[in-house]
Amino acid sequence: MWRALLLFLLFVFIARAVWRLLMGVVQGASTGTPAAGAGARPGTPAVKMARDPICGTFVVPGKALSLVARGETIYFCSEKCRDAYGASAGARA
Ligand SMILES: [Zn+2]
Questions:
Q1: Where does residue 78 rank: exposed (0-12), middle (13-18), buried (19+ CB within 10 A)?
Q2: Rounded distance between C-alpha atoms, residue 78 and residue 71, angstroms
Q3: What is the per-residue pLDDT for 48?
Q4: For residue 16, what pLDDT is reported?
Q5: Ligand 1 centroid vs 83 CA: distance in angstroms?
Q6: Ligand 1 centre from 55 Cα, in Å?
Q7: Centroid of ligand 1 to alpha carbon of 2 (angstroms)
Q8: What is the pLDDT of residue 27?
Q9: Rounded CA gap, 42 and 55, in Å?
Q10: How many A from CA of 13 to the centre of ligand 1?
Q11: Tens of pLDDT, residues 61-87
Q12: Which residues of the chain have a pLDDT value below 70?
């Protein structure tokens, strides 16, 4: 009896963890809108960081400026870096 109850609780716990993970992926990919409380906890790496190729700063994709180049989305910390990247890419092409 207790084993069944423990297994049930374990299942609920895992299901909730998987659900939260899925919701996080969907929210991060589609809207970029931070979930309630998600952005309010510093030091919790909830989001995958992207690297600014110009200055090397790590930025949060949902809040950073972005540019799509050759089917790849690149994120920048500022307009200055985005312009610098666009200028260099344009000069090469
Ligand atoms: Zn930068």
A1: middle
A2: 21
A3: 85
A4: 94
A5: 10
A6: 4
A7: 56
A8: 77
A9: 23
A10: 40
A11: 989 999 998 899 999 999 999 999 988
A12: 30-46, 90-93
**What pLDDT is stored for residue 39 in this prediction?**
52
- CA distances to 5, 6, 67, 81, 93 from 1, rounded to whole Å, are 6, 9, 57, 62, 69
Query: How far does the centroid of ligand 1 lie from the alpha carbon of residue 64, in Å?
Result: 10
Whole-number Å distance, alpha carbon 82 to ligand 1 midpoint, is 8
Position 60 scores a pLDDT of 93
Whose CA is closest to 85, among 68, 62, 71?
A: 68
Token couple for 76: 């920048």
Per-residue CA distances from 65 to 9, 19, 52, 81 (Å): 42, 29, 10, 9
Q: How far is the CA of 49 from the centre of ligand 1 (A)?
A: 13
